[in-house]
Every structure is written in C-alpha cells, then in structure tokens.
Amino acid sequence: MNRPAILALEDGSVFHGTAIGADGQTSGEVVFNTAMTGYQEILTDPSYTRQIVTLTYPHIGNTGVNAEDVESGAIAAAGLVIRDLPLMASSFRCEQRLDDYLKSHNVLGIADVDTRRLTRILRDKGAQNGAILAGAEAEGEGAVERALQVARDFPGLKGMDLAKEVSCQAAYEWSDGEWALGAGYADTRGDERPFHVVAYDYGVKRNILRMLASRGCRLTVVPAQTPASEVLAMNPDGVFLANGPGDPEPCDYAITAIREILETELPVFGICLGHQLLALASGAGTVKMKFGHHGANHPVQDLDSGQVMITSQNHGFAADEATLPANVRATHRSLFDGSLQGIERTDRPAFSFQGHPEASPGPRDVAPLFDRFVTMMKARR
Ligand SMILES: NC(=O)CC[C@H](N)C(=O)O
C-alpha cells in the first residue's frame, strides 16, 4: 500500500509524493544532482551529510542495490527525492531494492515528485533548506504546516562543521586497490617500498583510498582532528586531504594542522573539502555557492594545457579565486560558471582539485591527478 510523503522547502514550496524509505521526518539542505547513474555511490558519499538529494534523472532504482558500489559504510544523505521508482529492480548484481535499502538504513525518501519543477526552484532561488515527512507524519490536517516548520528549523549548512562529525574515530590502515585504476594509471607497485600516505578523513570516499592504493600507496587514515605533530611523527611520504561535508571555514583544527604540514616539504594533495581547506590554510577565502555543482558531466579546464575534462562534482562551497595569495596559483576552472576548480602552491609540493578525480560515480578524466601526487612523492624520495 502506498504511504504518503511531503517535501517542503523554506521558500514555502510543497510537493506531495509517495514514501519510499523509512517513516518519520528529516531535514537538510535540498540539492539536485544531474548524474544519470550512481545513486548508490551518491547516497553513501559522506559529503552529502545533512543534504536531501534530488536526482534529476527520472528513473532511479532500476538496477537495485548491492554491497559493493558504496563510498562508505552507511547512507550519508539526509533524504532522497526522485521522480519514479520502477516496480521491478533488475541486475545480475542486485541484492536489494532501493526502497528496502533506504528503509533498512532508516533513511527517508520520496518518489512521484515533479523533480523538474523542484530543480527549477533550486536553480532560480539557490539550494533550499527543506524537509521530508513520510508515512503517518505526512497524514492528516496540519501535515503541510509541520513540514514547512521542520524545513525552516534547519539552520543551513553555512557555518556548519561536519567533517569532525563524520570522520573515523580512530586511525586505520587501508591497502585495498581493486577496481580503481582509472586513466593514466602509474604502476608503482614494483617499487621496493610502497609510499606511505597519511589521509585526513573529513568524510573520505572509499574510491579515493582505492585509487591511491592501486598506485602503490599504503594508507594510514586518521581522524579529522589529529594534530599535525602526530601525522609528521608517522614519517609519511605524503599527506592527503579528503573530501567531506559541511562548510570548510569553521574547520579550524584542520586549517591549523594543514598550515603546520605546509611548513615541511611533504607533498600534499587535497580533494573537494580537502581542496577548500588547503586554500584556507594558504590564506585564501571560501564562499557558499548558489546551488553548487552536483553531477557527473561538468566540464573543467586545465589552465596550463587548455585541455577540457568531463568531471564528477559535488560541492556547495568554493575557494574564491579573487582571494588567492601570491604563492597560490589557479590551475583549473569550471566551464559552467568560471568558478575555481584547482590550485597549487608555488612554494610547496602541494595541490588540490575541487571536483572528484576518483569519480564514483562519473568519468575518470581527472584520474591522472593521483599519478601527479605519486610522482611528487617519488621525486621527494
Ligand atoms: N564533496 C565535498 O568534499 C564537498 C565539500 C563541501 N562540503 C562543499 O559542499 O563544498
């Protein structure tokens, strides 16, 4: 039997649909992602913490879910909004239906929503705080008012430090590199000793760890608040700064630690939140974007070669090119809106990328950046 669900936005917009996940209520920032595939990777990407994700591709759930295509151990998104859930899920790897998967992780979802109308609102007005009510919560008089109230009670992502919330509690080792080679793969596994990379976990996606491991790196993943002194004491070949949710600006513990690491000659590579944190630690500023970039076909230009790459993206904040100090150079720019996509320090072996070279989901045009990091570590050794 169909259970009702309501999606409400802070601007007063209301959508009625069908509950496809758990019953109850949830709130967060509502964003849209235009990728045609990869709903499992998107749901489990820790960077979506406190965000309700709308998928613009209309048929979601066709291939069901499996235990492999995940970027973390749980669903991170605060909720899922889709147009149509197919009656049947079918794939040789299908282990569960998408709706059962949402329920088993106690995550709310709403289907039968006019996601084109919703996306137009988000594009015109910017990402909105919103709420989903599902099941009994969405029934009866006052349900719409309640949904609007829950939406407006969400404080918004600006100023929210979530990296330390989703980070691992204790350090762990990672060496699994299967299925992750990507383009431009530099096989360094023949080297006598693997490169030891300490990876700051601000909400790291597993495919980043896999892609580093597949390039001959032995990883120690450390909690977001690990002081630089502890990282340096591990005597790594390089330091990696992970992706992660929330606003980079309040992550003062990370900015301080990265600043200290930048006082050494260690190679540093950052992705997404890690890129924004490298910018902040180098003295630049970050801004909240109108609706951000969430998709798998975003053109980004390498400013040195002129080459255009099709990239995977998921961010709502950005390092501000106008604030880059003299020792930081812009290396990549978005061809959608001209925003900054990559930087490098001119005085240190440190660089970072705003989009997702690890894809998952998405194209792997930017995978050679992992090789660049390995080459830097090789040069230093
Ligand atoms: N994927 C990420 O690391 C996202 C970074 C940051 N939370 C943002 O929204 O911009």
Automatic annotation (TrEMBL):
GO terms for molecular function: carbamoyl-phosphate synthase (glutamine-hydrolyzing) activity. Small subunit of the glutamine-dependent carbamoyl phosphate synthetase (CPSase). CPSase catalyzes the formation of carbamoyl phosphate from the ammonia moiety of glutamine, carbonate, and phosphate donated by ATP, constituting the first step of 2 biosynthetic pathways, one leading to arginine and/or urea and the other to pyrimidine nucleotides. The small subunit (glutamine amidotransferase) binds and cleaves glutamine to supply the large subunit with the substrate ammonia. SUPFAM superfamilies: Carbamoyl phosphate synthetase, small subunit N-terminal domain, Class I glutamine amidotransferase-like. L-glutamine binds at residues 47, 244, 246, 273, 276, 314, 316-317. It is an enzyme of class 6 (ligase). This is Carbamoyl phosphate synthase small chain. SMART domains: CPSase_sm_chain. Residues 1-195 are annotated as: CPSase. Composed of two chains; the small (or glutamine) chain promotes the hydrolysis of glutamine to ammonia, which is used by the large (or ammonia) chain to synthesize carbamoyl phosphate. Tetramer of heterodimers (alpha,beta)4. Pathway: Amino-acid biosynthesis; L-arginine biosynthesis; carbamoyl phosphate from bicarbonate: step 1/1; Pyrimidine metabolism; UMP biosynthesis via de novo pathway; (S)-dihydroorotate from bicarbonate: step 1/3. It comes from Litchfieldella rifensis. HAMAP family: CPSase_S_chain. It comes from the Bacteria. Coiled coil: none annotated. The keyword Amino-acid biosynthesis applies. Belongs to the CarA family. Residues 3-133 form the Carbamoyl-phosphate synthase small subunit N-terminal domain. Its EC number is 6.3.5.5. The active site is at residues 272, 356, 358. It catalyses: L-glutamine + H2O = L-glutamate + NH4(+); hydrogencarbonate + L-glutamine + 2 ATP + H2O = carbamoyl phosphate + L-glutamate + 2 ADP + phosphate + 2 H(+). Keywords: Amino-acid biosynthesis, Arginine biosynthesis, ATP-binding, Glutamine amidotransferase, Ligase, Nucleotide-binding, Pyrimidine biosynthesis. It holds the Pfam family CPSase_sm_chain.
